[in-house]
Amino acid sequence: MKKTTRIIYGLLLIVFGSLLCLKNLNVINFDLFFDGWWTLFIIIPSLISIFDSHFNEGFIGLVIGILLLLACQDFITFDLIWKLFVPILLIYIGLSLLFKNTFSKKHKEFKTSEDAKNYVAVFAGQKYKAGKKIDDANCVTVFGGIDLDLREVKIDKDIKISCVNIFGGTDLFVPNDVNIVVSSTDCFGGCQNKTKDCSGKYTIYIEAVNVFGGLDIK
Q1: pLDDT tens for residues 87-120?
Q2: What pTM value is reported for the model?
Q3: How many domains does the chain have?
Q4: Does 156 lie in the same domain as 191?
Q5: Domain span at residue 15?
Q6: Pick from 100, 114, 111, 124: which is nearest to 49 by CA?
Q7: Domain C-terminal end among 57, 73, 103
Q8: Percent of the chain with pLDDT over 70
Q9: Of 76, 103, 130, which residue is a domain's last?
Q10: Distance CA 155, CA 25 (A)
């Protein structure tokens, strides 16, 4: 996980925890589940995706999340969202064409372990094939999907892969000569380990969080 991402998640958890403490001490009063609270599952990951230099994946998700939140708060109507969707989509495509080299950062194959640390798919599907070596990695999907192929990777030490799937899914293809240890926290989601038992020398530790999403290990 990148330093910027860790900082953002850390600050959010600190703020949220502080608010809960103040609420439980009756210092402040606020409704935890406000109208449209669920849109934060779109807005926050999209913002983090933009900070991680995944503009294409994060921008459209951020716009949709903000529009849905405004509709839930009765600032605009859901009917207006449908009317704005096409113009915003056209603007987004136009910006992508004008600033293609700046905003676009798609990779079909990562050659080195330094390039293969973070994999993100927000309102998109991404297919990645790792190079010959990989260190610890992170996969994040939000209303999207990731296929991550590690079958040609030479595993010469224990590694950890963290997967967060929110209304999305990850297909993880692993070598057949390593041990797989899975730890999964699921909320209306799940994890399936379809690999065969192995007595390999090294282990891939997989930590997953699935919220209306899933992880398949193959």
Answers
A1: 877 776 676 666 554 444 444 444 333 445 788 8
A2: 0.51
A3: 2
A4: yes
A5: 3-103
A6: 124
A7: 103
A8: 78
A9: 103
A10: 50
